[in-house]
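Field reference: "sequence" (input) and "structure" (output). Example, Topoisomerase IV subunit A:
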Amino acid sequence: MSDMAERLALHEFTENAYLNYSMYVIMDRALPFIGDGLKPVQRRIVYAMSELGLNASAKFKKSARTVGDVLGKYHPHGDSACYEAMVLMAQPFSYRYPLVDGQGNWGAPDDPKSFAAMRYTESRLSKYSELLLSELGQGTADWVPNFDGTLQEPKMLPARLPNILLNGTTGIAVGMATDIPPHNLREVAQAAIALIDQPKTTLDQLLDIVQGPDYPTEAEIITSARRDP
């Protein structure tokens, strides 16, 4: 029996175990995927709502129904964390371009956590979410099994514009973090067109188009870009 035992230095085992755990947290929990700018729970909420037929022109449906579908089919974690992620995507003061259109009490800028329970609020997808979903059935996304292997879910959503720049994101993982501010849709679209037309466009040229972040709560820059010494 001792011949079958594998000997491994403790520092090697702990290093590999910690790396595997941190990669799981980074890839599957905390940080967004650059392709669609969404964390796994956000992607699963959007996809589950699309499967429920909750597009921008549909009737509102209780948020508890969406959370139940997300947990039961794609994301077997806590319901409160899932609902809070959904709330953030519906708050126009948290997201520059909300993915969820909410009806009811979804919090306020001075108290974002004051939203009502999921059994009281109703929701559907916003018009903006079509940028992420409109090409999903055209073979543009890879599909993977869900947690119990009974369903398929998209590995990423085929975003028609770089949502990671448009809505930005924040996240803290194991040993890593991200904090990307949101940007203006029109400016980002113009920058994308410029890159397609001229692949050698420089960063300075792109910054002439996208001149800075565009936050959902709005702001005005009142100081000159050039300040006297």
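The radius of gyration is 21 Å.
The CA atoms of residues 107 and 115 lie 4 Å apart.
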